[in-house]
Amino acid sequence: MAMRQIRTDIDSDTDTTHAPGVPAALRLAFSVYVALLIWTIVWKLGMPDFGGHGVRRIKLIPFVSSGYTGASVPLEVLANALLFAPFGVFLRLLAPAWPWWRAATALACASLGLESLQFILDVGISDTTDVIMNTAGGLVGFSVCAALGRSSGSRSLLVRLCSGGTLIASVVAVTWFVSPLQFGQPDVWVEHPSTPGHSHHQSG
Q1: What are the E-state strand segments in the chain?
Q2: pLDDT in tens, 102-134
Q3: Confidence bin at 20 (pLDDT 50/70/90)
Q4: How far apart, in whole angstroms, are the C-alpha atoms of residue 167 and residue 188?
Q5: Domain residue spans in the chain?
Q6: What is the pTM (predicted TM-score) of this model?
């Protein structure tokens, strides 16, 4: 009788059939968000292309001017943090058991992957500032979601907000893409004829 009770307790502890699963809408919203993130960071919401801009550079010193690159623009620094804040929210909703350091590792790897993609495709400058701010912004989103999503009701609300926000962002991005306005141009290097071999960096 005692063995049966112990076995029942073990089965109840390992039973996950009633555990709250991840809604399909949340998975879809996260996939769309990642696609939008790649489009925004790599191609600045413009027509995707695959190199030939001559901007394959790596900036190892964050925030300040280094080599041919200038100091980080405050608005761009803030934008990099804001772009990854939803990433942290999604991570918390998709993997609520993750500790903050695992989320930070995933965020940093995702940011590093995007910077590497820009380098490989020759469409932008790979900047350590972006990796730092992307990771920091994602951790803020992760922490805020952890604080607000303690109850099932608040978690459901956050799932709906993420899904709705991703839908709105998609509509805005596509509308901007088909509009006559230009979001930005790829990073270019302009040669100064007066100083041979010297280049000046202009970012879009």
Answers
A1: 58-59, 126-127, 188-191, 199-202
A2: 999 999 999 999 999 999 999 888 999 999 999
A3: low
A4: 32
A5: 24-178
A6: 0.77
